[in-house]
Amino acid sequence: MSSISSKEIQIERAKTTKIDQVDFNNIDFGRIFTDHMFVCDFKDGKWQTPKIMPYQPMTIDPSARVFHYGQAVFEGMKAYKDEAGKVWLFRPEENHARINKSAARLAIPEFPKDYFFNGLHTLLNLDKDWVKPGMGNSLYIRPFVIATEPAISASPASEYRFMIICSPAKAYYSGKVRVLFAEKFSRSADGGVGFAKAAGNYAAQFHPTNLAKEQGYQQVVWTDANTHEYLEEAGTMNVFFRVNDTLITAPTNDRILDGITRKSIIQLAKDNHIDVEVRRVSVKEIKDAARNGSLKEIFGAGTAAVISPISAFEHAEEVFELPNIEDSFASIFKEKLLNIQHNLSEDLHNWRQEVK
Amino acid sequence: MSSISSKEIQIERAKTTKIDQVDFNNIDFGRIFTDHMFVCDFKDGKWQTPKIMPYQPMTIDPSARVFHYGQAVFEGMKAYKDEAGKVWLFRPEENHARINKSAARLAIPEFPKDYFFNGLHTLLNLDKDWVKPGMGNSLYIRPFVIATEPAISASPASEYRFMIICSPAKAYYSGKVRVLFAEKFSRSADGGVGFAKAAGNYAAQFHPTNLAKEQGYQQVVWTDANTHEYLEEAGTMNVFFRVNDTLITAPTNDRILDGITRKSIIQLAKDNHIDVEVRRVSVKEIKDAARNGSLKEIFGAGTAAVISPISAFEHAEEVFELPNIEDSFASIFKEKLLNIQHNLSEDLHNWRQEVK
């Protein structure tokens, strides 16, 4: 693949900034975008010269394949500002590797690493005032690729657009989350695209999640489509169970997203001598553990959600309320993660990357 | 829901027509569009006044949820012109019902029937010169809905766009098709969205289909994700098997699209006293039937493909070539269907609808 330096990105600066219109203390997730966006088109068999331009609507044909066949993948990342004003990314190489893994599964061309990182750093430098310091503040970064070729035959497109847009963020879920364990609906099949951050995986969850919301649950924890006996993930989060002092989470496979927060928590648990078991987790064992009191906590983990404690779950019309505990694993891991992300603690595994 | 008559559609006519630039004898499927398109936006909790305007690119925010979460469903229909110049649709009520069924599964608001039919008929009247008479000619019609709300939180959008675009068409697959029976990859899960014409279902098939193409197969016939022992559908077509003189096809369920061509063939078979079995079809029985000579034919059926004879299949690295037979069911049903669609034969079941 061709190589590109930051200097070769075509930059059109915004004439004015929108930043003064934003109340950073009251931010609805994903509705406000920074002054610039990164755009790179794929055509004639290769990625073209990338551009950074003022954030703006784009023009696209109604026959663009993304609208008809869902060829679209994305990533979720965050940038954090430390007290000295430096801006940091968290394990961004993992996001780049994963968007290409997602892309390959959807027959989308991979995006070159140097384009990705030069584009990302150049964009974040232009919009660095949008990254606010302080715990809980971050800039949510959304790289994504869509099929733009104007042709509605059901086959892979020959034209794509890779973009990065950025949105200032607070925590995604506020308060504790109540979840429903899926008994009928499924998120993904063996041999399917569940492991990919494919756009279609998300829309498929909205209706079952709406039904759960009507019952008072914010999220669904998906179970395996074959038997509905094993717990998998929550769609926007991987899920961890603490039974006594052991942390348990499902292994990744072709149905479950290989979450970066998930794997960071597994590493942090090991670093802190907490027993971690990565194995199939049955609905039955979690219900049994809830009944006998050994289930201490459940929490979700993901870039947008960070760590989201779960206060109750329902399965087979039985509701299990979880105890309030002190020194929860959820709170310990959240603090450790945020401290690393905000450059407040040592970075043993070289997870931070400074934006320069 | 509110009601709307054709007169209330806002119509902006194209100043010129593109029709003279089109070589109707050499048409690549889905790349050429007629002079007009139908557009109706959903916001503030309701569908707004529909518009017909010159076919053109549209402006959409990069944060529109369709790009990120795949909230998009569509339909495929065709219009046919008879020798008297009248234009006909085939079972369009089924398309309207199905797009709403697909929409409901993806938490997209349903589109009112009167909007759908008034829009469709008004659009086709404007562009009726694009429907060419003669067997094999048709106008492919693509109604679709996309989530347009500019906000990247993972939840159903509050704004959508419903559109109809039209593209002149010849047959979709030319020549016979060789297929691979899926052994590893899957199209959909129990409890998933396989029954819906959801955009994401299609992108998920592109990579496995590319791998099949590298082996010399144009299509994959999907098997159930749990066991890969039962044959389901081909992604853009339902699949029929003829064993001796019995026609067999899989029942629809939440993994398989309820194809309109499929159900029409089942009815035509009944009308013509051909035995039809709608039941699970195992890979094993089809391989056994191929070996003992009782498997006479396999064909795919769908709106775009009409009826597509399959000349060979591969499973577990074993290739089965199908015989060339005279008076194949595929050719019989294709002729009967096309004759009904083109107003050349009696329409026993009131499948035709004239465009007025």
TrEMBL record, chains A, B:
Alphabetically ordered keywords of this record: Amino-acid biosynthesis, Aminotransferase, Branched-chain amino acid biosynthesis, Pyridoxal phosphate, Transferase
Signal peptide: none
Pathway(s) where this gene product acts: Amino-acid biosynthesis; L-isoleucine biosynthesis; L-isoleucine from 2-oxobutanoate: step 4/4; Amino-acid biosynthesis; L-valine biosynthesis; L-valine from pyruvate: step 4/4; Amino-acid biosynthesis; L-leucine biosynthesis; L-leucine from 3-methyl-2-oxobutanoate: step 4/4
Pfam families membership: Aminotran_4 (PF01063)
Lineage: superkingdom: Bacteria
The protein's required cofactors: pyridoxal 5'-phosphate
MF annotations from Gene Ontology: transaminase activity
Chemical reaction(s) catalysed: L-leucine + 2-oxoglutarate = 4-methyl-2-oxopentanoate + L-glutamate; L-valine + 2-oxoglutarate = 3-methyl-2-oxobutanoate + L-glutamate; L-isoleucine + 2-oxoglutarate = (S)-3-methyl-2-oxopentanoate + L-glutamate
EC code(s) of this entry: 2.6.1.42
InterPro entries: Aminotrans_IV (IPR001544), Aminotrans_IV_CS (IPR018300), Aminotransferase-like (IPR036038), B_amino_transII (IPR005786), BCAT-like_C (IPR043132), BCAT-like_N (IPR043131), BCAT_family (IPR033939)
Family: Belongs to the class-IV pyridoxal-phosphate-dependent aminotransferase family.
Stated role: Acts on leucine, isoleucine and valine.
Protein's UniProt name: Branched-chain-amino-acid aminotransferase
Originating organism: Corallibacter vietnamensis
